[in-house]
Design goal:
alpha+beta, Archaeosine Trna-guanine Transglycosylase, Chain: A, domain 4, 6 strands, 26% helix, 31% strand
C-alpha cells in the first residue's frame, strides 16, 4: 500500500476529513490515534479502512493521515474509543524528510 504524505496537496484537497478540536491537536501531532471525544465533525464519505485526513477545527490544517477504523456514518455517531489509526503526522520522520526535499 502506498500512502501519500501530508505535503501532497492534491490528496489533501479531495480527501475525506476528520476534524478534531484544538485540545486533540498536540496528541495527534505526536502520533496518537484520533479518539471519538476529540472529533468535531466528519466531512465526506468513506469506508472502514479508507485513508482519511485529520485536520484541526480552527485553521483546517492537515495534522495527520490515518486509516479509518469505521465507515463515515459510524464515525459520526461513535462517542468513545479510537476512530482513526494515525499513520503519518506533522513533524514525524516522513514529514521532516519530505519537507527538506520540498524546501530545497
Amino acid at each position: 500500500r502506498v500512502l501519500p504524505t501530508l505535503l501532497f496537496q492534491d490528496f489533501a484537497a479531495r480527501a475525506p476529513k476528520v476534524v478534531v478540536d484544538m485540545r486533540a491537536v498536540p496528541y495527534v501531532c505526536k502520533g496518537a490515534d484520533v479518539m471519538a471525544p476529540g472529533i468535531v465533525r466528519v466531512e465526506g464519505e468513506f469506508g472502514k479502512g479508507d485513508l482519511v485526513l485529520v485536520v484541526d477545527e480552527k485553521h483546517g490544517k492537515a495534522l495527520a493521515l490515518g486509516e479509518s477504523l469505521y465507515d463515515s456514518e459510524t464515525a459520526r455517531s461513535t462517542k468513545q474509543g479510537a476512530v482513526v489509526k494515525n499513520f503519518h503526522f506533522v513533524s514525524d520522520k516522513i514529514w521532516n524528510f519530505v519537507k527538506t526535499l520540498v524546501d530545497s
